[in-house]
Amino acid sequence: MNTQRYIYWQDEDMWIGYLEEYPDYWTQAETEDELKENLVDIYKELTSGRIINVRRVAELEVS
Known about the structure:
This protein has 63 residues and is of the alpha+beta class. The chain has one helix and three strands; from the N terminus they run βββα. The protein has one helix at residues 32-46, and strands at 6-11, 14-19, 22-29. Strands 1-2-3 form a three-stranded antiparallel sheet, covered by helices on one side. The longest helix is centred in the middle third of the chain and has 15 residues, at 32-46. It is globular and about 45 Å long. It starts with 5 loop residues before the first strand and ends in a 17-residue tail after the last helix.
């Protein structure tokens, strides 16, 4: 099973979040569970190859 780290918070009545690897692609929902479902959908779309120019975060070893 693949796991992805995500950042999330509650802002008044809405839950907002994004995948750590794809910080430009945010989603929101009325519940935390719905937010998780939205994040899974975003992950599937971003990794499908159908969206061009997807910006990602990576690490680079420099020493």
